[in-house]
Amino acid sequence: AQSVTQLDSQVPVFEEAPVELRCNYSSSVSVYLFWYVQYPNQGLQLLLKYLSGSTLVESINGFEAEFNKSQTSFHLRKPSVHISDTAEYFCAVIMNSGYSTLTFGKGTMLLVSP
Amino acid sequence: GAGVSQSPRYKVAKRGQDVALRCDPISGHVSLFWYQQALGQGPEFLTYFQNEAQLDKSGLPSDRFFAERPEGSVSTLKIQRTQQEDSAVYLCASSAQGAGGYTFGSGTRLTVV
Predict the structure, then answer these.
(1) From chain A, which residues contact B within 8 Å (Cβ)?
(2) Tens of pLDDT, residues A27-81
(3) How many whole angstroms from its chain centre is CA A25?
């Protein structure tokens, strides 16, 4: 079984400042990793994913995440946030072999203020 | 359709009432998943279908919860004799094949009063 830990339930940050949302996972086998974003009263939208290859993955709106196998982490970063980035961010994992379903962390609320 | 559609968007039920939540997955998607998201929590897995077969229902919290997908497309999650602890957002997701492509619907927010 796998599990996901998002230690920060809330991250307040000022507009145009950099941000890092932390995600650590636990699994006895290799995993695929995902970040989802949830805006108020909306469903989950895939932000980015790591399946294989380059350990640094990027989204179209400036977010990036780096898979670190030795530290079992997949932290999400953005060098300069916008007000519109205010949302809940969920890290999720799935085993890359056999049957598995997405396991989510508890989420981190990113609060961007002017 | 273009995305995963869930209905109703909001549902208020009196305690003890039965409810049915509908999910229309993306056309052609083989896999369908239901998740429950309590307030302030991450989504928790409920059940998984591959076509019409329910391959995993290990996340269903009690025998009051029942899901079906009789023709391998639309799915219904039914909750009998609703309790206050059932209040949550119920999310449906579908996937073609492989691990990279879960698409979530907007969810149904169930409030049991």
Answers:
(1) 4, 6, 32, 34, 36, 41-46, 49, 51, 90, 92, 94, 96, 99-107
(2) 888 889 999 999 987 889 999 999 888 888 888 889 999 999 899 999 999 999 9
(3) 11
